[in-house]
Specification:
Length: 172
Amino acid sequence: MNSVFSKTLRKLREEKGLSQKQLGQLLFVNHSTVARWENASRLPDPTMIPRIAECLGVDANELFQLTAQSEESPNVIIVDDSKVILSDALSVLGEILPNATITGFIWPLEAIEYAKKNRIALAILDIELGTASGIELCRTLLEINRRTNIVFLTAYPDYSLMPGAQKPVDSW
């Protein structure tokens, strides 16, 4: 999958004098998860990269770059019913993941058809897609390939805040 990331992760972990089990404990994952990252059979979830970087004392952006350096070009999709957001997101993702094949969709059914024909490594989904649900789209994509990583984007505070979480401050 990604030998560049796996070799670097192992090197950084060993430089810190940590075993796979110790790193797993720091990250609250099983040591076998760390082993899969290091043998290049899996990549960590994108939300895990900053936690790994903090534990190993490295820049998270460097680790993100390493995940993009793969022997194969990973397929990334973004699904959003706003053409403006979709266009901007495609531009940003192109800079962050230069080796990835990034495809944008306004219509969830088009994304599903694409996923049936292509292995999706990462799907970035809006939660509300007009009359469709990004959560339902997520379920369908995971039925097609359970190893697809999913990230939700939303501008709706009802979806972005955990129950009981402190509300954001409107002004300083």
